[in-house]
Amino acid sequence: MSDLSVSNSTAEIVAPSIGPQETKQKIYSIQHLRWFAATLVVMRHTLGHFPDEVISRNYLTRSGEFGVDIFFVISGFILWYISAQSRPRPFPFLLNRITRIYPPYWFFTLAMVATAIVLPKAFRFAYVKPLFVAKSLLLFPAWHPILHNINPVLPIGWTLQYEVFFYLLFAVLLLLPPSKRLLGNLSALIVLVVLGRLVHFNSPPLHVYTDLPLLEFGAGMVIGALYEKRRLVPPFVGIGMAIVALVWMYPMTRFVDSVYRPLAWGPQAALLVYGILSAEYGTRVTWNLRLLELLGDASYSLYLCHLFALGALRMVWKPFPEFGTTACVLYVLTGILLATVMGLLSHIYLEKPMVKVMRRFVERFLAKKKSTTAFPVESRA
Known about the structure:
transmembrane; acyltransferase activity, transferring groups other than amino-acyl groups; Acyl_transf_3_dom; membrane; transmembrane helix
């Protein structure tokens, strides 16, 4: 995951969060938020290692899941802002998304399959039946018989199932005139969610494609439209909004297990993103912090690989019931640091080369497709 810059750059939140994005300037705050969101998810999964007698399952331990809601809002923002700047065509847009998301995801999914086969006890939740693995590689929603939820082989890939559907829907609606796209996207998302609330689909794909998290993508698009028109608040107000969002998020954690979770955390995620964007745009202080920018670039890899890093940590340093507060804090910080280092290495040596190769392939494919569909103009001389 790279920056939001004008030329040939990549910005996505897959993770999640988040394909090639073309904008007129770098939006550094989005990079920082992507790293923050990914780190929240890592913190949540690190805290999940502790037995109940070591750390209670309270609001603090669950608040890391808020990172996913931030990712979804960022994805909606980025896609809307990009489409307003570069006017992409549906098919190339979708291909760019695919080349951005799938190759690194395939690598870590197959790595989990291989690990589960060689070391069955490494991942107790691993389910590697061939048909289920095939669906997982496609990010086609399916029921996970061990986790008892709609998850792929790589469990954190559940967010990507929403992302891929949103990309597909967004690509189709690129056929609309630019002035109608925001209304078209919001209308489609609302209709799908209302349908899902009325029908309560048992089919995993239909459940995902009509689920409430889709509204968070819509919120991100609204923020993108506001940013495009520079309808922002003053920097000090934006910072205040971000603080309010984080404080407001904490008591709403009680609803994370509810089907209405996106309604509990979606507003805070949208408020946070809008506030931070406003703060960056309206201040003269540079937000170009190279380390945070690099961590934002690596947020997708961090999201994909952190279960492996935390699994390795757990094997060598198991959280015992005798752990005190200091040991717990050190364990969590070590987990975050280890996952971050692994995410950076994955981004530099795996994700970027894979995406580069796939991008070249897509460019050649599109160039060939364009040349075969072009008709020569006859001379009238």
